[in-house]
Automatic annotation (TrEMBL):
It comes from the Eukaryota. GO terms for cellular component: cytoplasm; endomembrane system. Belongs to the ClpA/ClpB family. Torsin subfamily. GO terms for molecular function: ATP binding; ATP hydrolysis activity. This is Uncharacterized protein LOC118421034. The gene is LOC118421034. InterPro entries: EMI_domain, P-loop_NTPase, Torsin.
């Protein structure tokens, strides 16, 4: 549908490129993987150089070797150019059935609860996707907000779940980090009317993942502050088996005392002190499970799954979209579209639009040969 909407010729367009893990990357030995890497490193730049809006579809991504997935990483990072080519307008779609069963179960649960399919929202499925597709716990129990010397900075602990989102409380100040409407707020009370000091428009997945710009109330105005960092404190212990370290640098504001000599009386010189703030670079040592391992409690254990890919662990995926099971209404719409495509629109019964009316009016043998009629019955 995306290809049809964007390109003349749809999937048949020379600017749409499809890769299937089980067909194009079926071998998993080292020699073949090297050949696959060379193929992608050669083909992706060629296609993007020819058309900057090229689309690349990777089907059954969960069946691709993680180190092969990671070879795509340079092309989806937010770099201006890689070897002189700009990839920021190219589209990469990654398809996976990893969380299919839990998504279906959740959709059925919502329908049984009386919710209409059209009323489903992403947050209904977020925790399922995070846990089943990415191999992580849905929400971090302890967070730290860094970046500015303000009362909102510091450690927050999860106290409860509200509206399918956690509520975090500051460990020292009477401040809450919580979700209301479509934004995360830092405020003194958990109500819409509470004056907030920081807000973040809701984004997909966990708070501390991907690049997010908080809006901070400064001198009566809301300003976007890229310096704000949200860090998950639920990290594996230092020095544990299979634990790797990395130094994370980020911009921050430093407060220090500046001394200067001033003339205080005639020929006397005095020392004056003043508090000064300046932007600098802070760093922090982070402890994470090494590649090929995932965190289970306080241990890093060997694991498999889509989460191993750097595309996900480095938060390079912009949008995660769950595909929901079709209901009768969607099946009817699909049948209608197929009939219209085949020039059989006159056979659609417009009276009630029910599933059975569609089937009863399909009499053309070509449609039967295409197995539409037997499939519906």
């Amino acid at each position: 549908m995306i290809a049809e909407a964007l390109f003349e010729g749809g999937l048949g367009s020379p600017n749409v490129h499809y890769y299937s893990a089980t067909r194009h990357f079926m071998h998993r030995d080292e020699d073949h993987i090297m050949q696959y890497k060379d193929k992608l490193h050669r083909e992706i730049p060629e296609k993007v150089q020819r058309c900057q809006h090229s689309m690349f579809i990777f089907d059954e991504m969960d069946k691709m070797p993680p180190n092969l997935i990671d070879t795509i990483k340079p092309f989806v990072e937010e770099n201006m150019r890689v070897d002189g080519i700009d990839y920021r307008k190219a589209i990469f779609l990654f398809l996976s059935n990893t969380a299919a069963s839990p998504i279906i179960d959740r959709a059925l649960e919502l329908r049984k609860g009386g919710d209409n399919r059209k009323s489903f929202v992403l947050k209904d499925f977020e925790q399922i996707i995070i846990k089943n597709a990415l191999g992580e716990e849905p929400w971090c129990p302890n967070l730290r907000i860094e970046g500015l010397r303000r009362t909102a900075m510091g450690n927050y602990h999860k106290t409860e779940i509200h509206d399918d989102r956690p509520v975090y409380k500051h460990e020292k100040n009477k401040l809450y980090l919580f979700f209301k409407g479509n934004i995360w707020r830092v405020a003194r009370e958990q109500v819409d009317s509470a004056p907030a000091s920081m807000i973040l428009e809701d984004r997909v997945m966990r708070l501390e993942e991907s690049k997010k710009y908080w809006k901070v109330l400064m001198d009566g105005n809301w300003e976007e502050v890229p310096e704000v960092q949200v860090i998950c404190l639920d990290a594996p212990p230092a020095g544990g088996p299979n634990v790797c370290t990395k130094i994370k640098s980020y911009p921050c504001t430093e407060t220090f005392i500046e001394e200067q000599n001033v003339t205080c009386w005639l020929f006397w010189t005095c020392t004056s002190q003043s508090t000064v703030q300046r932007k600098t670079t802070c760093s922090q040592t982070q402890y994470t499970c090494c590649d090929g391992f995932t965190q289970l409690g306080s241990e890093c254990v060997k694991g498999t799954g889509l989460w191993q890919a750097e595309l996900l662990s480095h938060n390079l995926v912009n949008h995660v979209v769950p595909f929901l099971p079709l209901e009768r209404e969607q099946v009817e719409m699909c049948v209608r579209d197929v009939l219209l495509e085949k020039g059989l629109g006159h056979m659609i019964t417009p009276v009630s639009g029910t599933f059975y009316n569609y089937v009863r009016t399909v009499k053309d043998k070509k449609v039967r040969d295409c197995r539409l009629y037997p499939l519906l019955t």
